[in-house]
Amino acid sequence: MRQLFSEYQEFIPDFDSFLESLRRPLPNHLRVNRLKTSPVSVIGMLQEKGISLTPVHISEDTVYEAPRALLPGKLPEYFLGYIHPQALTSCVASLVLAPRPNSSVLDLCAAPGGKTSHLAQLMDNTGIIVANELHSRRHAPLSHTLSRLGVLNAVQTAYQAQEFPLRHSFDFIMADVPCSGEGRWRLSRGPDTTEESRYRAGIAEAQKRMILRGFDLLKREGIMAYCTCTYNPAENESVVDCLLKHRDAEIVPLDNVPAVEPGIAQWEKEKFDERVQRAGRFYPHRVDSVGFFMARIRKRG
Ligand SMILES: C[S@@+](CC[C@H](N)C(=O)[O-])C[C@H]1O[C@@H](n2cnc3c(N)ncnc32)[C@H](O)[C@@H]1O
Question: Is 0.85 surpassed by the pTM of this model?
Answer without folding.
Answer: yes
